[in-house]
Amino acid sequence: MTRLVARIKIFPADSETDIENLVNNLKTNIPKGMELRAHVKEPIAFGLNALVGDFLLDDAEGEMEKLEDALKGIEGAGEIQTINISRQSVKMK
Question: Is the pTM of the predicted complex or chain greater than 0.85?
Answer without folding.
Answer: yes
